Amino acid sequence: MVGIVLISHSPGLAEGAAELVGQIAGGARVVAAGGTEDGQLGTSTRRIRDAIAKADQGSGVLLIPDLGSAVLSARSVLADLDEDTSRIVLADAPFIEGAVSAGVVASTGADLAAVLQAAVEARDARKF
Amino acid sequence: MPASSEAARAGGADAATEHTATEHAAREQTATEQAAAEQVVVLPKHLHARPAGQVAQAAARYPDTRIELVADGRTADARSILAVMGLGAVAGSEVRVRATGAEGLAATATVVAILTSAEE
Question: B4-116 maps to which CATH number?
Fold first, then answer.
């Protein structure tokens, strides 16, 4: 199953979003990477790396950043990865909607391309 | 999960007049070869995040079948949880489940079972 890493400036936001996706998309593997190493607002490349390792079950990992430096930190982690980076992909998608959409698709055993597409499509979804 | 034959009967009862051709086709084919199936349900609960997620997860089990939900004139691809939630379908409202493809009857029955289950 494709794993999902939610990268947020806020530990609470990342963990809450992961909890929400876990509830809605039963079976999905979603790992939070929120905040700095000392738990403050910000992003941490080490936390992102650890979360990727935890989320990775061999079928790839989708990274969903919240804003700004979450994107930069994720890119920095991807640039430093030794392994085949096509298995770890950064999604340009809304944080919550993208996570829920990707989580549901990942939980069905879909491949990384389909999970990425589900996240990206969330940008165009009307809330009501 | 209801058997496909049950879905065919239920669909016939709900939509016999407007879907005679579809129902006739249902009798001509086995469930797995069924081309299209349709059923209208009245929701016992709001179609919010969790049931919408269950619908999307179930729809993924029928890769060769297009499954749509229609509510209040709006159509959603059952595979998209966001589209299904976006219908804003509330308890008591009608939702039409329409499945076209290799496993239309089975897919319809599966989605209908989720929509009409009382839990949550």
Answer: 3.30.1340.10
From A107, which residue of chain B is nearest by alpha-carbon distance? B57
What's the DSSP call for residue A123? G
| Contact criterion met (CB < 8 Å) for A24 and B49 | yes
Q: Which residues of A touch B120 (CB under 8 A)?
A: none
What CATH number should be reported for the domain holding residue A68? 3.40.50.510
Please report residues of A whose CB lies closer than 8 A to that of B52: 24
Size of interface A-B (CB pairs under 8 A): 47
What is chain A's pLDDT, residue by residue, as a tens digit (128 residues)?
A: 999 999 999 999 999 999 999 999 999 999 999 999 999 999 999 999 999 999 999 999 999 999 999 999 999 999 998 777 789 999 999 999 999 999 999 999 999 999 999 999 999 999 98
Q: What's the pTM value of the predicted model, to 2 decimals?
A: 0.84
Q: For chain A, what is the domain count?
A: 1
Domain that holds residue A55: 3-124
List Cβ neighbours of B63 (8 Å cut-off, separation of 6 or more). none
Of B53, B67, B119, nearest to B95 by C-alpha is B67
Residue type, B36: A
Residues of A taking part in catalysis: 9
Residues 6+ apart with CB under 8 A from A19: none
Looking at this predicted complex, what is its ipTM? Answer: 0.92
Testing the interface with B: which of A2, A23, A95, A104 to mutate, by most B Cβ within 10 A?
A104
